[in-house]
Each structure stands twice: as C-alpha cells, then as structure tokens.
Amino acid sequence: MLRVKAPMELMAFLGIHFEGKSRTALKAMLAKKQVCVNGKPTSQFNYALQPNDSVTVNTTGKGQYELSHPKVSVVYEDDFVIVVAKAEGLLAVATDDGKENATAFAVVSDYLKKKDPRNRLFVVHRIDRETSGLMLFAKNRDVQMEMQERWHEIVTERVYVAVVEGVPAKEEDTITSFLRESKAFKVHAAYQGGAGKQAVTHYRLMRKNAEYAMLKVELETGRKNQIRVHMQEIGHPIIGDKKYGGARSPIGRMGLHARVLAFIHPVTHEILRFETPVPRKFSALFVI
C-alpha cells in the first residue's frame, strides 16, 4: 500500500512509483481495475489524490472484484479493516433468531470471499436497520478483538445527523441518563446509577423550520438505540421512529444517519476519518 503525501493526479502518482512502466502500461492497469484508491478500484487516470489517501496496486494482472449492491458500498478497505456505507432498511448483522439472511455483514462477507475464498469478516460494531451511514468491519479476529476491547480509545469521532420532531429549546446540550433494555427488547432511560448503563449524547442544532430540526449528534458512549431514546427523552423523537415516540414520517424513513467515523487504525496507528453526505431527503425538509 502506498500513501499519498501531496495532492496530485493518480497517473502522476503511479508514474513516480512505477518508473519502469510506460504511460500506456499504467493506463492498462487502471482499465483492468488493478489500482485501488482508499480500497476502491478506479480506472480514472486523472483521479485527484489528496494527502493520506492510500493507493494499492495489484501487479499480478488480475483485476479487483468490485462490490455492487444497492444498499452497501465500500468506502475504504485495506488488509485489516473495511469501512462501508449502509443504506436504511438493511440489517447490519443477523438477529439472534437468524430469520433474516439479508444483512450488511452477509453482503460484505460475500464480496470478500469472491475476491478470495479464504477471506473472513468480523463484526466490530453495528447500526440500526433503519439508520443509514458508516459501518466498520475487521478482516481478522485479532483486529476485531483489539477494536472492540479498546473502542473508546480507538474511535476518535462518531457523528450522526438526526432529524427530529419540533425544535429543542436549547440549540446545544448534553443528555446523560442510564439505559436498560426490557425483555421486549426496548431500551428505556433511567436517572439512577445501577438501573442500567450510562449513556452520554451531545447535540447541536444545524437547521430548523416550524416543524422539524436537524441536529448534529456526537456519541460519547455507544449504547443500543442511544440517540433514539435520548431524543424521545427530551420530547423531540426522531422522525419516522415509531418505536421511540415518532408520530410523523415525512420522508418515509427514520431520520438518523451515521455521517462521520474516525478511528486510530489498529495496525498502522494512523488516524483515518470518513464522512458521508447528509441524505438528500433530510435536507429537502428544510428547503424554503
């Protein structure tokens, strides 16, 4: 894997690192999808590289298998981790009853095995079925264990965008409570220690109108359904979230998106940061 140090076009970068190859040969490598930028195959010779981008070149002559799925796309991939963007409506991993096979985990696992049958995939964390955005998987058990055991040290930034009913009285605030899960698999908030696990959520107002507000939400802890419960707790449930008090569904989905994920790479120790756009349906609610 090669690391980009200064902005430049991909062809120029390849020319520096593969001096013995002609421009025609380099273009052929691109055409055969032998070149990956940040884990994604590209054939664009004038791709604008930025500092800290990673470039991987397969010199065996075999192209890279590219993930093609309507609800999952690869954002970054190396030998140890893979970051994907998941659409709403798809489970992250299989439920305990195992009734549903259509999951982001299954899609990514199948993608890796098509590249090499020996490849394996390991769950690091998960997001809700109706939440869209970034997810991280590990490619071996050691990396999985390292990231799960040191999650709060390794993850440096985790930001969501939430669209809620009404407008919170405070433009920014911190919500702290203790969360516990009932036998019916619903999470409830309590205010006394010992009743559950402490959950801390920070939010800041991004946009608003007479009916809704868009919030930037940062997690200090990562409890199950934390954002959904905390928004209900302050009287502003997430739109489309019937389970936690949402009465309105103006965009036909739940208004929660995992926008930013930044972490210290468990092997290279580099800080990697990934960001996805705010869903268009979210922004459309605030167009005047």
What would you say this structure looks like, in words?
- The structure is a single chain.
- With 288 residues, this protein is of the alpha+beta class.
- The protein is built from seven helices and 17 strands.
- Strands 7, 8, 9, 10, 11, 12, 13, 14, 15, 16 and 17 form an eleven-stranded mixed β-sheet that branches. The chain has a four-stranded antiparallel β-sheet with strand order 1-6-3-4, with no helix packed on it. It has a two-stranded antiparallel sheet with strand order 2-5.
- Strand 3 and strand 4 form a beta hairpin.
- It starts with a strand and ends with a helix.
In short:
With 288 residues, the protein is of the alpha+beta class.
The general outline is elongated
Number of distinct helices: 7
H/E element sequence:
EEHHEEEEEEHEEHHEEEEEHEEH
Main sheet record: 11 strands, mixed
Helix content: 10-25%
Tell me the radius of gyration.
21 Å
How many individual β-strands? 17
- Return the average pLDDT rounded to an integer: 89
Gap from first CA to last CA: 46 Å
Strand content: 25-35%
Low-pLDDT parts are none
SS content category? alpha+beta
Q: What order do the helices and strands come in, and which of them pair?
A:
Blueprint: E1 2-3, E2 8-9, H1 10-17, H2 23-31, E3 35-37, E4 40-41, E5 48-49, E6 54-57, E7 72-77, E8 81-86, H3 104-115, E9 122-123, E10 132-138, H4 141-149, H5 151-154, E11 155-165, E12 172-181, E13 187-190, E14 197-208, E15 212-219, H6 226-233, E16 256-264, E17 271-275, H7 280-284
Parallel strand pairs: 10-16
Antiparallel strand pairs: 1-6, 2-5, 3-4, 3-6, 7-8, 8-10, 9-10, 11-15, 11-16, 12-13, 12-14, 14-15, 16-17
